[in-house]
Structures are given as C-alpha cells and as structure tokens.
Amino acid sequence: MTYKLHRELVDGKVMKLSLGVIEVDAYLKFLQYRCRPNTLISYGYDLQIFLNFIRKPLTEVTSTDILAFVDSQQSAPNRQGRTNGLSSKGPGLSNRTINRRLAAVASFYEYLRVFHDLPGKNNPVPRSLAKRNVFWANRYGNTAGTALIRVPQTLPRPLGIEEISPFVDSLRSHRDKSMVLMMLLAGLRKSEVLKLGLKDIDFGQRTLMVREGKGGHQRVVAISDTGLQELISYLNEERPASCSDKVFLVMKGKNKGQPLTVAALDTIIEYHRQKADTPGVQCHRMRHTCFTRLRQGGMSLEALQAQAGHRSINTTRIYLHLCPRELQEEYLRMSDELFSSFKANGRTVND
Fold it and tell me: Which residues fall within 8 angstroms of residue 313, CB to CB, at 6 or more apart?
C-alpha cells in the first residue's frame, strides 16, 4: 500500500489532512491549531515519506529503522541536483531537509508517547550520539551529544549587479517589477509579497505592514521611493478590478482578478531567469541581497533585524560575514588601537 496525503480545502484553506493511518491522522489533527498551515503540510508530507519507507507497524519501529530511513534520504534523488550538504559527492537530499523530516517523525512519536501510551515509552528517533571524547565532555560538564545529522553553517550568497541588472531589465510589467523590487529593496519573502493587502500600504510613511510573516509574526518594513513608485504604477495602470484586497493579482486569462499564487510567481521568476540568462536569481537570494547591501550601507543589526523579521538577532548576524569590507575596516581600526602602545614605545609586533 502506498500512502498519499489528502487535503480537504475550504475557501483555499487547509481544513484537514489525512494519510489513512489512525495514529498519524490524529496527530495531524492535533497539530492543526498548533502550527502554521505551511508547517502542517510539511509535516504531513514528511510523514507520508516516512510511512512509505518504513512498511511496518508504527509501534514496532526501532532506532535501527530510523537510521535506515536516514540512509535512504541521503541517497534519494532530488530535483535540483544538490548534494547532501557535506560533500560534493552523491545526489542525496540536503541535511536540512533530512533533519526536518526527522523532526516530524520524532514529534509524532513524542505525541504517541504522551497521548497514546507508546509501548516501552521510548521515542525511536535518537536525539544525538555520544561524544567521541567522553573524558573532555565530563570534565567540562558538557553532556550534550553530537547531532545525529550535522547541518553545516553556510552563508547565503547575495546577487551581483551583473545578475540583478539584466534580470530586472527583462521584466516588462509594473506588477512583475514591483514584486521583484519588494524582495530586492524591502527584503520581503515571496509569500509575504503575495499576501500583501491594499490596506497594508502606507504611501505617506513609505512603509508596508507585513501581517502574515514567517511564524505568523507581524512587522512594519520600509520601502524605497523606487519600489513605491513601481507599485503605484502597477496599481494605477495594470491592476484589474477585483473584489480581492490582495495587491498582486492575475492580470489576464480565466483567473483574471484572482490573487497571484506562489506557483505563478515561481513561473514568472523562472521565465525571466532564462530570458535574461541569470540562472542564479532566486527569490530568497534577492532578499539576502537586500540585507547585505543595507548592512554594507551602515544599517545597524537591530534595524536590520526589524526589517528582516528575524526573531533572533543571531540570524541577522550572518550579514556581518557577508560584508568583508566592513569587517576588514573594523579589524584594522581595532588592531591600530590595540598595537598603538607598541608603536609608541618604538617597538613593533615582530620585536
């Protein structure tokens, strides 16, 4: 039997997910009002993949089965042809994806343990493995193990002007250019762009209200005159009449006047990426480009955090590492201060 995730929609909203397994369906119902819709759907698909691999009663799954599942994901093909994130060999899924699937499975078994009296009261998903050097771990009171799947810390790659210019120039409608500039100049996520409502635009203050940001959090972001002018041109010249309050709508065809979907935006980006011969342009890279440039311009990390909608400033700190010129200037300034006493005494570092 092959398990397939079924979705019940009402007015475009997910009302119920099911996989045809009593325990899993009960868990998905439990999650429905405890997480965002996209998170719920991701968990559903992750559990679908797990069920189709495991092929045994859920209460009989062991840690050995979990490790076999991890192995299968590390060798699974992926649509983008990416590697597993740790080496340049092999077609496996990224370690972030595997970790997310493990988190879904672990959360499911924790639910069974607490609410359905899981036999043995054990979660088969290992949290971590023992440290290789137990002596040093005990000596310094560090009892944490090594991660089951290591996710490398990678820096996002901002776009260069040689990629941005031809891509933006290839855009022919004010709508498409406005959406791109909101990611490139205001740092919005593509989902935030599409969820933007007419009432969320404050033309006087030059700000946008992001009502449905990541995790359901709201924030107010600034937008430049260039982005705002393109938005005004779209609203005045292209936006079709519609009862929808969403800003960005389908402009022709049978769905004219309906809110633009993520799939439609992805199609637009892909078309212009090919047209402009800029394969590196992606929505999230435009967002990273925005914050890298703002940091290079001197914007404080706290202001950058607010604009980006990061819950933790640690997430925002990656943009320090994306600005080597600023890091070098700060280092040279501090090193001059630190070693000034050597120079004053006629000494050098080599002395």
Answer: 301, 302, 305
C-alpha to C-alpha distance for 72 and 98, rounded to whole angstroms: 10
Residue ranges for the chain with pLDDT beneath 50: 80-90, 130-146, 349
Contacting residues for 172 by C-beta, under 8 A, at least 6 apart: none
Residue type, 333: R
* pLDDT tens sequence across 49-97: 999 999 888 888 999 999 999 888 888 766 544 443 333 344 578 888 8
| Measured CA distances, 278 to 129, 215, 289 (Å) | 43, 31, 15
pTM of the full structure: 0.69
Fold exhibited by the domain 161-329 = hpI Integrase; Chain A (1.10.443)
Short-list 283, 80, 256, CA closest to 187: 283
For residues 337 and 343, the answer to whether their CB atoms sit within 8 Å is: no
* Cα angle: 71, vertex 5, 63; to 5 degrees: 30
Q: How do the domains of the chain map onto residue ranges?
A: 6-147, 161-329
